[in-house]
TrEMBL record:
Topology with respect to the bilayer: Peripheral membrane protein
Organism: Aestuariivirga litoralis
This protein's name: ABC transporter ATP-binding protein
GO molecular function list: ABC-type transporter activity; ATP binding; ATP hydrolysis activity
GO cellular component: ATP-binding cassette (ABC) transporter complex, substrate-binding subunit-containing
Amino acid sequence: MGMAASKVPALRLSGISKSYGKVRALDNLSFDVPEGRFFVLFGPSSVGKTTTLRTIAGLVATDSGRLEINGHDVTTAPIAGRGVSMVFQSFALYPHLTVYENFAYPLKEEGVGREEIDTRVKETAAMLKLSHRLERKPNTLSGGEQQRVALGRSLIRRPKILLLDEPLTNLDAKLRHDMRAELKRLHRQFGMTIVYATPDELEALSMGEEIAVMRDGAVVQRGTPDELYEQPIDTYVAGKIGSPHMNMVKATLAADLASLDTPLGKLLSGRRLHSATAGEAALVGIRPSDLRPAAPGETAVPSRVHLIEPLGDVTVVSVEAGGETLRMVLPEQSAAALKPGDDVPVAIDLSKIHIFRAASGQVMT
């Protein structure tokens, strides 16, 4: 660990729990975010992403645990001094104020002088391509423009930490694509710490430098997009990261602890599993990109083509093998020769298969 590792993180949550009546929204939640990182909280709705952001912002008082910002304990500190700004899913703009006044409002509240306000409003508007909209009211703007105003109102305060709660959910696909690029650009330009909550896998993988996968109010696994894709810790993470989803095949561990009996035949994992017992029920995870039509003479699983879905430069081919449906992702040209009903032997890249315990879903090592 070099010098960088000893730096105080921008944000640290330690053992934070929060219940609403019988519902446990956060369950002993712990993670830290290095300064300047674009950090994504990822998972389906109701896993605790919004509660986590609201806790960091100071809008939620926790039942237990500790929250630190830049090394200072702010668990019970007031909202104002935290240096944190949050953009909600609903933009919550002031409808009776112009864009200029919406931008200026938080600075007026902080007692910033008029000239400084004017400079910062114009800078922020230029950066968000809203200079020509400053005199308009929010309800005359498009959804994308309203979103940029909401963002600008948070950025103008120059927060140390920017919290974004599913900010692109209400936008159409084209705008979401543009705003993703815009947010990454702003992140590079300002170098601030961003914590971004989303249920959208594409958004998480394309924007997050680091991703925390959440489930039931806690972080299941965190890592770079590549780490989560290549080394999922359990079937939950494996199923959430990677599109199309990983193929899962029921299996039983053989006595040698290195091979598995499956409906596709015996699969050799190429490694001895230390945390397993012979005869244990397992799930074999195979990424669609780790399957392909076999070359002549290669070890293969017999299969029949079931469905072909062209997706531009790649094609998803579903095959039936041993009573299982497997999806494989092929380059467009190698899928062109296939049609439903064709018999095709399939080769599996056994060095890349994932083996999970059937009982718990945890990865076997």
